[in-house]
Fold:
Amino acid sequence: MAGREEFHPLRLTPTHRRYNFMQRLLSSNQYRVARNMTLIAEDLHKVFATRHGSLTVLRGISLSLTRGDALAIMGPSGSGKSTLLHILGTLDRPTRGRLIVDDIDPLSLSERELADFRNTRIGFIFQDHHLLPQLTVLENVLIPTVVQQTASLNATESWARQLLERVGLSGRLDHRPAELSGGERQRVAIARALVNHPLLLLADEPTGNLDRANARVITRLLLDLNQQEQTILVAVTHSAEMAAAFPRRLEMRDGQLIEMER
Amino acid sequence: MTFRQLLIRNLQFYARMHFAVAMGVAVACAVLTGALLVGDAQRASLRWQADRQRSGVDVALHRPRFFQATPDPQQVNFYRGIYLTGSLQSAGPTNRRRVGQVAFIAGWDPSTLDGEPTLTALPAMPRSLAGQLGLNVGDEFIARIAVPSTIPRESLLGRRDLEQTTLELTLRLADILDDDRSASRWRLQPGFEPPRNVYLPDELLRQRLAPYVPHLSTTGPNPQMTGHNLIVAQGDRQTIDASLRQRLKLIDFDLKWGRHPYFDPPDREALTRSISLAEARRQFVPKVAEAMDVNQDGNLEAQEMRHWYEKYGYLSLESHTGILDRELTETSLRVAEQLGIRASPTLVYVANEIRSGDRSIPYSLVAAVEVDRRGPSGLAWRAGESQLADDEIILIDWPDSPLGQLRPGAPVELRFFRPELEDGRFVEQSATFRFAGYLPLKGAALNPELAPSFPGVTDRLSVRDWQPPFPYDNSRMKPVDETYWRQYRTIPKAYITLSAGRQLWASRHGDATSVRFALPRVDHADEFRALFENRLLTELRQTAPGFQVDDVKSRFNNASVGGQDFGLLFLGFSIYLIVSALLLVAMISRLNLERRAWEIGLLQATGWPLQFVRAVLLMEGLVVTLVGGFLGLVAAVLYAESMLELLRQIWPDASTRSALILDLRMTSLTVGFFAIAIAGLATIRWATTDLARRSPIQLLSGVAGTIETGPNRRPGHFPIRGVVAGIVVSGVILVALASFLRDPMLRAGFFFAGGFAWLTGLILVFGAWLRQDQPTSRLGRGWSAIIRMGIRNARRYPNRSLSVTGLLAVATFLLMAVESFRRQPGLDFHEVDGGSGGFPLIVETSLPATTEWPTAEADEIVERLQQAFQRRRDAGTPDEKLAAVRPVLQQTVIFSLRKSTGEDASCLNLYQARRPRILGVPERLIQRGGFRFLRSLATTPAERANPWLLLQTDDEPDVIPVIGEQNTLTWMLKLGLGDELVVPDESGRDVRLRVVGVLKDSPFQSELVTSSQHFRRLFPNREGFNYHLVACPAGSVETVVDLLSEGLAPYEPEFIRTADRVANYMAVENTYLTTFQLLGGIGFVLGAFGLAVVMLRSILERRAELALLRAVGYRQGKLRILVLSENVWLLLCGLTIGIAAALMSLLPHLTFGGAIPWDRLAATLGLVVLTALVSGWLTVQSALQLPLVSTLRNK
Structure:
């Protein structure tokens, strides 16, 4: 895709040329269409070494999700919900098990390829919104696109504006995070997570810091956008109200996922 | 959104954080660039100073003796003048101030080359000098000028009395020159003390010098000296050198043709007619005139005279100095051989006595000649059938001779003074010969022209009127001696072979009194002289000994490189400050990044490759570094100026202080800027490295700084006990080894290393304590519990705490331990084997004494004291006073040393000394020994016991053994034991000075020391003693100074206590140490600032925690104590560790009488503690003023 040439610190290095090749390969439409776009987690285990011995957090988690799916995971603190989310988001590696996202085994990718994989296929929403205070609302949303080579600058900005409009913040584009309420900040974080059309949208306690009204708005927004963008939404929450809004719910107990009854 | 926009936003948003980093970079850049600028300033100042001092002079020739030659004025722009040294005294009725080491200049005005108005009113002197003497224009002053002697003063016939060697002028000051004028600052040697130039009227000086240099003076009622001893010129050395050589004449080499009554008659016309015998007796020597009158008719016909001199006449080449230099003699013989003329050298000497058995002849001339009938001496003695052997002597067959009727083979003893004074004293010696025969007083034996003319001897009609410069007792002369003198004049009374004579009477000045040439035809004398002179000068001009023109421009330029590079020194001194600043940069960068850890995690979580994230951070770092670097450059200029001002304030030598001027060089600014930019960027990159290893999850949790407290810490992993034990043991070993070392610097170095080992061990122990996260006791209650809680907080971030504590501990250690290198004369300084060699006093005189002042028996001193007492009209008790003086002087021993001109080689001289001053020590001092030697080339037990004996070695002709002071050799001359320094000798030949011994803490830091014997080889024309070592009881130094200042007043003595002189040299080292400590102190403050930054960061991270404590009822006072206790604890730990380790390294310093300047250290440490406490207090205050609820809410 032709776009305005942007400043790029690694433009001329051989490493960068290899990186571009991988990026083109992974983002080609043919490649996407030819595969069945799903999230498959098989027998995921996670063990932490501590001073008092090893601590098993995940015990053989298996999961299979396709585009449009929305899954809420509940469970008590320390049960391993966030660990699972981090593994699904490739921020952490399982001690054992297999993960396939979009027919790709991200655990086999190099650090550089993995970063690109995350950039194009995964969107994160954290309990603490993690907006960069030095940037405006629009710039915060565009942050994941800065490292992209292929996307057009105008197209991505236009898409970011659309997203912000959809989350109800079209009038706050030039505001700084400090000038927003908690709910607004979280909506910006949602827009940021969707700016690269991710396959997988991962939310870690997205309403944990919000009041009930805002929590409801955010939950609805997440589910709507999930449907509109046909992402796979996985949310970890303590909130039963939020979980109830999800079509599928699982509970993490003793390192395993148990289907919750509706 | 682009990368660039993000970068700008980050820089704007985190401006305050970046500012702190930029300040750290600025400090490092300022210190590094400042150090380089100080070096530039030194070099530029020296260059500037050197250019000003030479005042446009490119080359110069300054000889100890006068000469007449000049370069060709058509080829060279030159000036000739007189340059002599001496002393000044104001001549006012109440003002009798004296100043020594004065240069008297006439005929040359440096203003002419510098384009300044020339001097019109003379005498003139610089304002500083006039100020020292308290003189105003119109005031009278006395100039005492050392006049170069024609006949070497230390030879038998040289004049030595002060009155005969010093010209005293009473003058009225006509002008006072600004010190900035070229005439005021011009000098021949690079140096820093203001030159004491006095410009005299040329004509006046030439008139007054005429009696001292008659051979270069005009005749008539107002004779004037026509020579000069200084030529200065602009242009290249080779052109001027060649031009001067081409114009050298015999007189410039002090050569002359011997006056001959026949070839150089007072009345040439008289020689063409017959003269009466009575007239002939006056013109010739009486007995020679009678011998010429072959027909004995009472008249001397022209034919008779011609016949006599055709047979016995010869021309002789002599020297105005009384003795011919070896090289001149050999060249003359070589030229004569080329011309096919027979030539032969002769050496005529005065024997105090010729004795055989109980009969003797007093004061006789003895000739050493090549005894060969074919040669010009043409001698034939009665038993002379064979060649004269070297142990044989021929006596004149003189009817009244007391030594008549000797049997062949009878022993004949010659008693004579050695040709050169031994350390300023006459030494009589004897030699015994076998009597070979009598030489009839006829023909060739009637040869009065053999002896060169000596004023005071050969010009006297009676032996009783002789006034020779050596001890002479005319009462020993008997009527027969008087008769001989009247009839035969200077006809020698005895002959020995030339080789035997040379063995006895050759000296450094030469080994012949004349070279005689047999003339082919008697009427060709003038043609021969012209031809020979021409050929001889052609030869002599090739080597031109003593006429090597000095390339002043190159010499000053070379000297201006500087002996000690201040830039490197300050770089060394500032290294701690630079490292501290960079550590601070690293620490602040790290803290900043920790604060932004979640941001980095977020970027990674959104798919930013780590390299991109780091690229953003590094680009920010680059901008910050560049900004800091530019700020640092501005600060560097101020810093360099401050350092120069500091040097100007504390440098021990006042004359050097004003010479340091800031000089901004683009090279140093560029090097300093980029070096720190690279170092700063590397530091920031290092700070990002650790964060790069963290996972995004950890970073997102925002606890990157506290990760070290996480569950993976393994305190027992590092073998801390073994390492600490090893370090402490190595420290013990180093200290134990140090106890056996003799060299104090090496010993201090070992103790320093031992102390540093302990420091490392203690820091590691502290680090282990910080990482030990098991609390050993419960908190308890009250203030003590709060303090314990605060101290335990220090363990929360062990790396941060250890960095700060280590920084403070190292700074404390350095500041204190450097004291062990501070120098002062040792307790044994005044011992014979101590630094002073047992000499508490040095006397330097402006006018050289030609006789040594060996002991209290030095009659001259006593005599002058007596005169001084009488002058003061203290005549009532002179004897009593003298009686009191004698016991003091009897315990006083003076060793007189020779001293060359040259450059001050000590660390007080900022110039690079390439021709150091040289001292010549007398044989007595060599045998006495003493002084503290560090190393020597001694191989024999005797040399090891007294390394001074090494100065007597004379194995290689061009090698002179020298002894030097360690600091001078190492730092200024860059020489080690056994190394050689090539310097030109007086005649311009290269000589190798080989270091055979290294002294420690001696007063000989401005010069190299060799034996008097070698000194005379190097500087044959440098006569007299200017440097005197005085050994006297410690309690009587003041009395000795009083007595000698009276007794030696005419020599213009300057008294220096050796302890003061050595302390002055040591003051330079101490100045360096003070500078180091001062810069260390600034580094220390930087460390304290680092501590404050760490505390601020820790408090900010714990705002919520503090707010919680407030919420649960902690009052503000308690919270302050809680936070400050952590701060103070780290501070105290740093200081304690540093002080404890430093005390170990200070043991030798304290053992050898050193003291720790607690006041200065306490002030520095106090400043640090205060800085840390104030900054900690302000930090706590700011944290405690945050609103409670919002702080709790905004965790």
